[in-house]
């Protein structure tokens, strides 16, 4: 697995691993299911997804999924991932998706994680970050704004879902140790 660890001293991002499955399933709630997962997680489905994430890291794939970790025990507080390619993205754009477990919300951790992952994405060659937020999800929109993203448009997906797009030009940075 790719050995990446990003930290600002409060939040640490590192690749998801199989021993995160239990913490992820325990942290899943109605909001994560609604806004991020699309349905309640199962052990088999979550393990399969985490294995895919591990494989993407190992092969330098287009998906980079991180666990958001906090405190001395590196407790899993949520996830954040980057997708470097998607039919809806222009060249140089990277999609960012995040979710925090209930006990960790409202503490600024998602904003910190977005800042860290943006630095990583820029070091990997991305020029612009994209956050796609359901209009009915004010918490996620607030994270986008606090993270320096600007609302640019609303898009209707093929399935009919509406998403507000927030974008941010990524600085040219080098991640220490990367």
Automatic annotation (TrEMBL):
The molecular function terms of the Gene Ontology recorded here are: acyltransferase activity
Enzyme Commission number(s) from the entry: 2.3.-.-
Q: Which UniProt keywords apply?
A: Acyltransferase, Transferase
InterPro entries membership: Acyl_CoA_acyltransferase, GNAT_dom, Ribosomal_N-acetyltransferase
Enzyme superclass (EC):
transferase
Tell me where in this chain the N-acetyltransferase domain is found.
11-171
| Pfam family name, one | Acetyltransf_3
| PANTHER family named among the record's database cross-references | FAMILY ACETYLTRANSFERASE, PUTATIVE (AFU_ORTHOLOGUE AFUA_7G00850)-RELATED, RIBOSOMAL-PROTEIN-SERINE ACETYLTRANSFERASE
What protein is this chain from? GNAT family N-acetyltransferase
Which species is this UniProt entry from? Streptomyces maoxianensis
């Amino acid at each position: 697995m790719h050995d990446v660890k990003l930290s600002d001293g409060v939040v640490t991002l590192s690749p998801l691993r199989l021993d995160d499955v239990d913490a992820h399933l325990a942290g899943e709630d109605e909001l994560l299911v609604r806004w991020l997962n699309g349905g309640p997680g199962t052990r088999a489905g979550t393990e399969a997804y985490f294995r895919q994430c591990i494989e993407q890291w190992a092969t330098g794939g287009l998906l980079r999924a991180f666990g958001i970790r906090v405190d001395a025990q590196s407790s899993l507080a949520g996830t954040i991932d980057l997708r470097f390619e998607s039919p809806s993205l222009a060249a140089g754009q990277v999609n960012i998706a995040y979710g925090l477990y209930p006990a960790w919300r409202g503490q600024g951790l998602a904003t910190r994680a977005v800042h860290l992952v943006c630095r990583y994405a820029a070091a990997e060659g991305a020029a612009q970050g994209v956050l796609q937020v359901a209009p009915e999800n004010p918490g996620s929109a607030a994270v986008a704004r606090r993270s320096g993203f600007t609302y640019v448009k609303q898009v209707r997906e093929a399935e009919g879902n509406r998403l507000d797009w927030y974008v941010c030009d990524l600085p040219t940075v080098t991640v220490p140790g990367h």
